[in-house]
Specification:
The chain is α+β, with helices and mostly antiparallel strands. It has two domains: 75 residues, no CATH class; 50 residues, Alpha-Beta Complex (CBS domain Like). InterPro entries: Heat_shock_Hsp33, Heat_shock_Hsp33_C, Heat_shock_Hsp33_N, Hsp33_helix_hairpin_bin_dom_sf. This is Hsp33 protein. Pfam families: HSP33.
Length: 166
């Protein structure tokens, strides 16, 4: 996909596990379960997701995997490698461990979308915000970025091209 997709899903649940599972269910993700074990100042987590078409290869595989993963309660897990943990939990299953990959932020900042949104509000509305607060502040929660626009920046938005943000 060239365009990133975003949606808002309420944080419903009493525990972190319930919140994550609710999010996955409501955001049309693959069936997912999150299992957490805590000890002192550490946490161990296992995210289990059902692969597409998995039922074609193993009709009860998902139910069996959920049941086996639910047995994860042993605090000794903190001393084991990922391969050892998976082998203990899924002892009769074929285990494949993939090479670790670094995690990278996938945020694609696009100030032009912010400017377009402000233009869609109309000059009158944006000027009223500017008059009331002295600046227009737009929070991009996805990229954890705040856009602060003064009167000159607002003028530039409503002129062709828009402002340049540094």
């Amino acid at each position: 996909m060239r365009e990133s997709y975003q949606s808002i899903v309420p944080l419903d649940g009493k525990t972190i596990t319930e919140i994550f599972e609710h999010y996955f269910k409501q955001s049309d993700q693959l069936p997912s379960r999150l299992f957490l074990v805590t000890a002192h100042n550490a946490i161990f987590g296992l995210l289990l997701q059902k692969l597409p078409n998995a039922d074609l290869q193993d009709l009860d595989g998902w139910v069996r995997s959920e049941a086996l993963a639910a047995t994860i309660q042993d605090h000794k897990l903190f001393d084991l490698t990922a391969e050892e943990i998976l082998t203990r939990l899924f002892y009769k299953e074929t285990i494949r461990i993939f090479d670790a990959q670094s995690v990278q932020s996938g945020c694609q900042e696009d100030p032009a979308k912010i400017y377009s949104m402000l233009r869609s509000l109309g000059r009158k509305e944006v000027d009223s915000i500017l008059k009331e607060f002295g600046e227009v502040i737009v929070s991009d929660d996805i990229c954890n970025r705040e856009y602060r626009l003064d009167a000159l920046a607002v003028d530039a938005i409503f002129r062709e091209g828009g402002p340049t943000i540094h």
